[in-house]
Amino acid sequence: MAYQVRYTGFAAHEVKEAFAWYRDQAGETVAARFMDEVARVEGHLRSNPFLYQRIADEVRHLVLRRFPYALIYAISGDAVTVLGCLHSSREPLTLAAWLNRLRR
Question: Of 46, 52, 67, 78, which one has the fewest beta carbons inside 10 Å?
Fold first, then answer.
């Protein structure tokens, strides 16, 4: 079964912020590689989102290669909802905040 991958407004904004940072700090090529990596992991989420570590209830995370980011997501039916794009070196949201994103 192929899952649909959707982004919350928060998650889409965080991906755009990361892209803009890479574009401004490292150039278009690195920014494009970041987006290619996001597209690659979306493919994994479409085919088997249950492969990745559960961090609470149905909330899971998938770590990107070569970039210090993880997609935080939840599975519901045939949909994968990306709740956030978390930088691994920044102060993470509390688990309650991630679960609150899921409810929105």
Answer: 78
Alpha carbon distance 79, 4 (integer Å): 5
- Report the 3 state secondary structure along 47-66: HCHHHCCEEECCEEEEECCC
Exposure letters 1-18 (e unless 16+ CB within 10 A, then b): eebebebbebbeebbeeb
Tell me the pLDDT tens digit for each residue of 32-68: 999 999 999 999 999 999 999 998 878 899 999 999 9
Q: Which two tokens stand for residue 78?
A: 């045939």
β 59-63/4-7 pair status: unpaired
Q: Which residues constitute the domain of residue 93?
A: 4-103
Token readout for 8 is 């919350």
Angle CA(39)–CA(7)–CA(57) in degrees, nearest 5?
105
Total domains in the chain come to 1
| CATH number of the CATH domain containing 71 | 3.30.2310.20
